């Protein structure tokens, strides 16, 4: 019983982080219809940036979040405006391959800059933990989960109530109609990408605190984001949260009860199953663009 | 034509062994590229996970051959081809149902998932010996240099794949596949049996890929999970078509020849830059020449 409770708690923590790491991917896919295969790179950029800033400024890694998010916001805007926009209008596989090419280049660049070794960010409270009933919580993991939930809620509020959020949602629903109403679609695309990149960077910090990371990880984070989006539904923080939590719980349950090597297998089986019974994702319309 | 055929067939006899190896890789890659393009080029279902079939083919053949150690040497490869091909056919026919419901990028990534799952199962289930590695019996006749034997084998296999693709391209089935690529819903409305055609193209493409994987396993002599389920193969297959010309018959051949030449001969000494160069090439290709080499030629001619 204790084991199940502990596994579920770990799964929830992991899932919250998956959700945060996937929400940018989901937003880009929902608004631009681009599968951003360099998403994992943006996540890692956030992690490395936080590592550098927190050691240079000697502050808590979570406090570097505003700086990292601003930095990645700019990177995302420029990246979309000057590179991805050129492939958006063409066949969808092209923009995906473009981002894949960029991911390969940047992964190589990260290996030159930071070496291929595992790195990790260690905050001062790294080894603190507390008990809640029979279940053990690390302070690090709980703060990571809290940061994820706060950020996801902020993004949801931003999309729902701010003028820019409304424009982004309008563009996602009906690009043409939004354009007719005077929306500068390219600018909105670039802003969406920038916001997504900023959230990917924030996810990178949270990931860096609880897990070791290396340049070779980027593919995993991209794939996770994709699965989360398929599970939860596209374009909304709520969908990402549902998908992320589901993925996190399934991963930890599989690792605990089937074998540590099999989370990817169950993840994929779950994906196929869901595509068969509920092709639109648990929330929303994930597959409007896929068929 | 004749001169080219003579060079292709007898070239390796006079070339240094490094270039025979490069030649093998070129022919193998071209064969894979064409097999991929039957689904990815003609029907427009770009798969990001065809390495799954290379791996399944190679491992199925290797395991089957290890159960018959007393079989005479000339029968080993046919046995491997039959078993490897059958396994790929079954696997692809089964996964075709859920996977081909997806389109575009979703299909591509779902195939990447298939390839990762096959790799993990091969690696973690002891029966497949994926993490330990699997030995292939030598099949080259004693009188012949194995490098040249495999070169000629790849040449025959590559030509066979090209012939099949050519037959498909100019048949009713091929026209149906092209119509699926152009507009699947309209094609279906006009009476093209899109589901059946897609599935058939998927299975043919998978089996041909698997057969090449069987030969690849033999030419390596010893395979592990990492040596056959490779993500760079998954990517390269798309790049061959992109480079040569997406959806064309000879595009993947041109793409495979030039990409293998560039990466093996020119970039072979710059391993640190390998990822970067591949990525840069991919980006430039998509931005500057989305129709590939054949597309550029066509545009010039027009």
Structural description of this entry:
The complex is a heterodimer of chains A (291) and B (302). With 291 residues, chain A is an all-alpha fold. Chain A has a domain at 23-219. Chain A has 11 helices and 2 strands; from the N terminus they run H-H-H-H-E-E-H-H-H-H-H-H-H. Chain A has helices spanning 2-32, 39-57, 65-88, 92-114, 139-161, 163-173, 175-180, 185-210, 218-232, 237-257, 263-277, and strands spanning 129-132, 135-138. In chain A, strands 1-2 form a two-stranded antiparallel sheet. The longest helix of chain A has 31 residues, at 2-32. The radius of gyration of chain A is 19 Å and the shape is globular. Chain B has 302 residues and is mainly α. Chain B has a single domain (18-301), classed as ABC transporter involved in vitamin B12 uptake, BtuC (Orthogonal Bundle). In chain B, strands 1-2 form a two-stranded antiparallel sheet. The two termini of chain B are 26 Å apart. The model of chain B has no long low-confidence stretch (mean pLDDT 87). Classes of the chains: A mainly alpha (291), B mainly alpha (302). At the A-B interface, helix 3, helix 4, helix 9 and helix 11 of A face helix 5, helix 10 and helix 12 of B.
